[in-house]
Write a structure and sequence with these properties.
Distance between the termini of chain B: 56 Å
Order of helices and strands of chain A: HHHHHHHHHHHHHH
CATH architecture of chain A: Orthogonal Bundle
Number of strands of chain B: 0
CATH topology of chain A: Ribonucleotide Reductase, subunit A
CATH class of chain B: Mainly Alpha
Distance between the termini of chain A: 60 Å
Oligomer: heterodimer
CATH superfamily of chain A: Ribonucleotide Reductase, subunit A
CATH topology of chain B: Ribonucleotide Reductase, subunit A
Radius of gyration of chain B: 25 Å
Number of helices of chain B: 14
Structural class of chain A: mainly alpha
Shape of chain B: globular
Shape of chain A: globular
Structural class of chain B: mainly alpha
CATH superfamily of chain B: Ribonucleotide Reductase, subunit A
Number of strands of chain A: 0
Number of helices of chain A: 14
Helix content of chain A: 55-70%
Largest sheet of chain A: none
CATH class of chain A: Mainly Alpha
Strand content of chain B: under 5%
Helix content of chain B: 55-70%
CATH architecture of chain B: Orthogonal Bundle
Order of helices and strands of chain B: HHHHHHHHHHHHHH
Number of domains of chain A: 1
Strand content of chain A: under 5%
């Protein structure tokens, strides 16, 4: 046990005396006078309910937070009165511009309102009997195997940062919990998809593992966020759309659509977060660009791995549609980087060389 | 950057040759011969859908997982069904609570102040149950994916709890009140647990067990039906978390009884800081709510009700220890002599 209390409270006569005083009816009631800023917030749109944005007003709003939090390292909620004696819980991510995105509160609301459960919401019976050829089915299971790894590692990544963040950023912490939940659901849904019926998992992909490791071991939270939310989820969203577009049945259509929808939340946070971060700290652009260089290189390895590209070739009816799919995915990713304030990354990126290679251009 | 990939794909002949081959239609297709086990998986109960329990077969199942990275350190009986339940019982604090109805119910200032203090406490403590699971989740082997998934659902549940109590405090007219230092020391002790099992015993079993009893009690003393609804929603989540903690402890008792002394020591300290959590503001706000005011006769009534609730917290904790196969903890518990000192030990004994 790392934390040992300063005394044995069970043998502390003061505590027993305090309890006995209360039990005998001698209440202090001082706390009733220690009231903070009054608040009686209501839903701005009754049909939408009481959102986080509705209660983020006055002293409870995040906009007056300083960039560096120095006043609270406890779990006291933002806006509560802070008495002396609050301990530090050891939070290590205390700079607002390292985590913040204005859109985070709305994305958390969306994550809750668009909840779904793979066990009962996917029309599994649509896979009985297998509605397409055996190779098509094996290709889907292979891609599902990669999505399981991706979901598990993204769940790990969100978890590894959430507990280090200061409680003053509770909207971001809530969103990271939703990300853990969403990413775990990706792993669950695609594990079930791969195993349903006479199913099996495919082979593990070493290049995908290297990509995920590069992302997971990011040194700072902004680097982790750019790598996971912008890069990995550009890929996941594209896969979701492709899965839905090539679906031969209601179950795959549903899975692909939900995957793309959930991935879009990661992307939205990533773009807004990186943009806010660079707006506040423009000198960090180079560090993020360096990190994305390395992750894009690992992404190229994944895109070119036989266990990734070949199932896509089988599902898409040839090489050319996959090359077009890759080009579209990369283009969307580059546009997002640009929108996030990272500039045009096309020229510097290993992805561009790879796409040229696919087009037969050896420049 | 801590990790550099094994290849630079800008200058990679293997990749270039492979792409040329695939472009020509010469696919490797090695991945088609994955050699993984093929089995027939289907939903046992179509109404319930395809659950983790349905996938618990052969090499894909969890029953025969080896003690790699110690399954005992994280596993719990029924964890797959807890995860499925969590997935199916998600709710939304924004839309599932009738916030506008708060205006329909008259509340005295002192009741609203007391309720705001209670909500401040719940907002403060609920996020420990996101931080602690998150602290351990990413260190767990992915072979234990059902446990990791359960922990991810718990993090989401607790974020929603912190959200709903913050919203209630900020919708009631009073706003947030004062944070509680003694409570914070307890939270710190949970977060700093040396092992996952120690932290789980303290958080899931002891702390969340106490909070579960408080939720039931708070539903009973809620000033409005809107507040009752909140407690009904959070209670079902909290019960799931406590059940996981109990089943994890039971798994340890059955598979690694040598860890008992270590868990005893963790709970010795956990109970110690819990006793210090007897904070005037927290206890008194519940007394005011239970007695429905601050007049002497109301205070006396409140003390009676809150006293019963506190005794119930201990008896339920002891019951859980018994059900987890850890009844030997009860005579060693720091609560036992304390209850005797306060003259409510007999009540606890009788309840057992």
């Amino acid at each position: 046990m790392s934390y040992i209390a300063p005394k044995d409270y069970a043998a502390d006569p003061e505590i027993v005396a305090k309890i006995l005083r209360t039990v005998s009816g001698q209440l202090e009631l001082d706390w009733m006078k220690r009231v903070g800023e009054p608040a009686a917030f209501r839903p701005s749109q009754p049909t939408r309910g009481l959102t986080l944005d509705d209660i983020n007003q006055g002293g409870y709003a995040p906009d007056k937070l300083p960039d560096v939090i120095r006043h609270n390292f406890s779990m006291a909620p933002r806006g509560a009165l802070l008495p002396p004696g609050l301990p530090s819980l050891g939070y290590r991510v205390n700079r607002k511009s390292d985590v913040w995105a204005d859109v985070a509160a709305s994305l958390f609301e969306e994550a809750k309102s668009r909840r779904w459960a793979p066990a009962r919401d996917v029309p599994w019976a649509a896979l009985d009997p297998v509605p397409h050829g055996e190779q098509h089915e094996l290709a889907l299971r292979q891609l599902a195997t990669g999505l399981i790894s991706t979901g598990l590692v993204c769940c790990d990544l969100a978890a590894s940062w959430e507990w280090r963040m200061n409680q003053e950023f509770h909207e971001i912490k809530y969103l990271l919990c939703a990300q853990m939940f969403d990413a775990a659901r990706i792993a669950e849904a695609f594990r079930k998809r791969a195993l349903y019926g006479g199913g099996s998992l495919g082979v593990d992909s070493r290049p995908l593992g290297e990509l995920l490791k590069s992302v997971f071991l990011s040194e700072t939270y902004p680097e982790a966020s750019a790598a996971m939310n912008l890069l990995v989820f550009s890929w996941v969203q594209a896969l979701g759309r492709h899965w839905a577009a090539t679906a031969t049945n209601a179950a795959d259509l549903y899975l692909g659509t939900q995957l793309a929808q959930d991935a879009t939340r990661f992307l939205s946070y990533g773009v807004d977060h990186v943009r806010s971060h660079l707006h506040a700290r423009p000198l960090q652009a180079e560090a993020l660009a360096d990190h994305l260089d390395l992750c894009e290189n690992a992404w190229v390895g994944t895109l070119g791995a036989p266990e990734v590209i070949e199932p896509l070739v089988l599902l898409s009816g040839g090489f050319e549609p996959v090359a077009a799919f890759y080009a579209r995915t990369a283009d969307e990713y580059f546009r997002r980087c640009d929108a996030a304030g990272l500039g045009d990354r096309r020229d510097a990126s290993a992805l561009t060389s790879f796409l040229r290679m696919l087009q037969g251009d050896s420049r | 950057m801590s990790y550099y990939g094994s290849a630079d794909y800008r200058y990679n002949d293997d990749l270039a040759l492979r792409m040329r081959d695939i472009k020509k239609g010469n696919l490797d297709l090695g991945w088609l011969k994955a050699g993984t086990e093929s089995r027939k998986f289907a939903a046992e109960n179509k109404k319930r859908g395809l659950t983790y329990m349905d996938l618990n077969q052969g090499s894909y199942g969890y029953d025969d997982l080896p003690e790699l990275n110690r399954k005992t350190d994280v596993w719990a009986y029924k964890v797959a069904s807890f995860t499925e339940e969590a997935m199916s019982r998600q709710w939304d604090a924004t839309t599932d609570v009738p916030w506008n109805d708060l205006d329909k119910y008259e509340r005295s200032d002192e009741i609203e102040i007391a309720f705001a203090q209670l909500c401040t406490f719940f907002t403060e403590v609920e996020l420990i149950a996101t931080d602690l699971p998150a602290k351990w989740l990413w260190r767990m082997n992915n072979q234990f994916s059902e446990v990791k998934h359960f922990i991810a659902t718990q993090a989401m549940d607790e974020a929603r709890h912190a959200e709903v109590f913050r919203k209630r405090a900020l919708a009631g007219g009073v706003g947030l009140m004062e944070a509680l230092p003694q409570t914070e020391h307890s939270l710190k002790a949970i977060l700093d647990g040396d092992t996952y099992s120690e932290a789980s015993a303290f958080m899931h079993l002891l702390a969340e067990g106490n909070v579960l009893t408080m939720f039931r009690f708070s539903e009973f003393i809620s000033p409005t039906p809107v507040d009752k609804r909140i407690f009904q929603l959070v209670m079902q989540d909290e019960a799931r978390h406590v059940s996981y903690g109990m089943q994890h402890l039971k798994w340890i008792m059955d598979h690694a009884p040598e860890q008992k002394e270590q868990l005893h020591r963790a709970l010795d300290e956990g109970e110690n800081v819990t006793i210090n959590q007897f904070d005037a503001a927290l206890t008194e706000c519940m007394i005011v709510l239970a007695g429905k005011g601050t007049r002497p006769e109301q205070i006396q009534e409140g003390i009676k009700i809150v006293g019963n609730m506190q005794a119930k917290q201990i008896t339920e904790y002891f019951h859980r220890l018994e059900r987890a196969g850890f009844a030997e903890r009860i005579p060693r518990s720091k609560f036992t002599p304390m209850m005797a000192d306060l003259g409510i030990g007999q009540g606890v004994k009788a309840a057992l």
